Amino acid sequence: MILKIALLQLLPEGELDRQLEKGKAACVKAKDMGADIALFPEMWSDGYKLPQDKLELAALSIDAKSDFVRAFGKLAAELNMAVGITFLERNEPKPLNSIILFDRNGIELLHYSKVHTCAFDLEKVLAAGDEFYVTELDIGRDIIKVGAMICFDREFPESARILMLKGAEVILAPNACPMEINRLSALRTRAYENMLAIATCNYPKGQPDCNGHSTVFDGVAWLRTEQGVRDMCILEAPEEEGIYLAEINMDMLRDYREHEVMGHKYRHPNKYKSLATDIE
Known about the structure:
Blueprint lengths: L1 E8 L6 H17 L4 E3 L14 H7 L6 H13 L2 E8 L6 E7 L5 E6 L20 E5 L4 E6 L8 H9 L4 E5 L6 H14 L2 E5 L13 E3 L15 E4 L5 E8 H10 L21
Parallel strand pairs: 1-2, 2-3, 7-8, 8-9
Antiparallel strand pairs: 1-12, 3-4, 4-5, 6-7, 9-10, 10-11
Helix pairs in contact: 1-3, 4-5
């Protein structure tokens, strides 16, 4: 079974209503391309604006049940396609950096807020999420176990590891930063060590501090029926704005997970206690 994910590598328009209209049009195009899931870059509702003034920030934040967010749930049902919409979520005392995944019936399946905020930079004005979640996404032909992490979450192996332990086969990863060899290598490693696929959607060149290069790593490093290793990167977008479609062979991934040695198979969790201890 082939899972098709559309990465909506879009330039923001600067206003909420324009973000809505451009986002909806991109979802329609993704459906026309055959996508099962359409994924937005990080914090699409405001194009990753993070004013440091509390009142300005609050004015940009929106509720999880806002018309903006719910419009994508309605659109998902109309298109019979899952949509991962990202937004600056209204929350007290600080907003959240969030994604909601609607299934093809417009039902909210997953609501995740970024755990590892970039608190050393602009994201110090945000609150951190409190947990990683996995859901079962019915795409009509199959049910896929899907989780989410956002941008800087990538730099912490625990993010993808927890999602894998909760059963994730595919991780959706909205992003807003320059994707260069080191960050791309981190994504490749998260996919490799957990035997899962990671789909990352970034903003294109033209958005400050972004450069496109949205990617999908399918998590299959080799096949028993072939010699040598294979490149797990099945899609790397260019810098330019566009909608980029990746096809993940879920049968191949599941067979690989069944027979290979990474993931949970040879862990020693009783020896990892120090990972859950804060360093003074």
